[in-house]
UniProtKB/TrEMBL annotation:
Name of this protein: BTB domain-containing protein
Domain of life: Eukaryota
Region (Disordered): 394-420
CDD domains in alphabetical order: BTB_POZ_ZBTB_KLHL-like
Entries under SUPFAM superfamilies matching the protein: POZ domain
Amino acid sequence: MPSSSLGSYAFGSCGALLGESNFFSTEDGDDVDVSKVVKILSWRGDHTYSDWTIIVTTNEVDSRTYHVHKSILSVGPRSSQYFSKLFLKKGNGRGDRYNQSQSTKIELDGQDADLFPLLLDFMYDIKHTNDATSDDDESLTLLDVDDDFFTTFNAVSLRHLAKLFDCEGLKLAVNKFIGKDLSFKTGPVYLLQAHLYEDDRLIKSARRSCIENFSRLDTGAITRLPLELFRSILTAVNEGTKNRNSALDNINSKEEVVLSCHLSEVVCQYFEKHPDRINVQLLLELTNETVMPKIAYEPAIGFTALVRELNPNNVESGDSDEWRELVALCQRCAHAVVEEYGWKDFNVTAALEEYTYGSCCATSNDGSSSSTKLDSLLFATSFAAALDRAQSDIQTKVSNNHDGSTTASSSKKQMEQLQQQNDNLRWQNQSMKKEVDRYKDVLAGTKDELLQLRQQVKELEKASNEN
């Protein structure tokens, strides 16, 4: 056999030489440019290979142009059915054919137009799409996004864009984020945004979150809501309070008092932030005593100021229900303030001077007093509250003094009563003893009579036998 020219070299499997490395490099040399291999399609930057143009306009006649790729927007788990249908044009019985227009114009509101680039970023996110590993819907890593992609403030708008452009992947991703992010801290934000976009499903979820966590909500956030939403939340909270009170039969529980005070603070701050929305009917509705039995002292001062700013011509006077409810509200506010600061701080002289020379005596051009009715009400209720508290304090002191001075006499009376009861028991015992002795005497006499009768019977029997 001819000798091998390979000498002593040993062969591995498949004829590969053992101890040798790869003889051919994939990257060395001048025939491969790695920088060209990693290049991917993007709507940002160079748009040489773009085959469609999207022009987004806003109500302010501001337009923005985006150069995109039909294959990215219309195919895959992040695609948009809106664009997929747009890129295809129905033929007349000849099936589908490509739309040759090359561009489309879309009108969006300002916030949606600002977030449209994020919609494109989601559809172009090749990084996560390539990570998809299976057909399992539960492990759709292809819908994952970076942690900072969604925020509390853009999620609702992106959810709207996802529905508008029929992007199921974005809908799933944003719904997943909202499900984790919705809490008592973010509830008012989601509620307001959902209201603006008329997103009924999200409105219900955010509203339920706000109602169930009302006592934990940020007051500033809840008072920024439109009246319709603010009213609906308070109405639901009030109904919940009524139901709990009815079930527990305890409207004075500590928990309910705390909730009522918090409710008074929220309502007062809402009216102070939106003075144009206040009217007598709304004020009485949101401060109804059945749902707000306790008013905190600071809101009480605020409500008093709000009452004073009401237009007296809009308040029904006389014996109307509205006037009686307004009187009751002022009384509760006055009592809350006096309870906190004490009746001694109520300056009767200053109040009388204010009532006599202040705004109470202000007259309109026709000579009639425009605010006397309300100012009289505030003066009367505050004075009455101070007087009630003073009388209550004095009565408490008198009661305490009376209790202290009568303690000894009360004890003496108790001793006398006990002694009397003891004497009565002794008398009853003596009476019972006498009664027992009497029955004994009666019994002894009865026994003697019985013996005599027996003797007589014997004698009669003896006499009868002899005869």
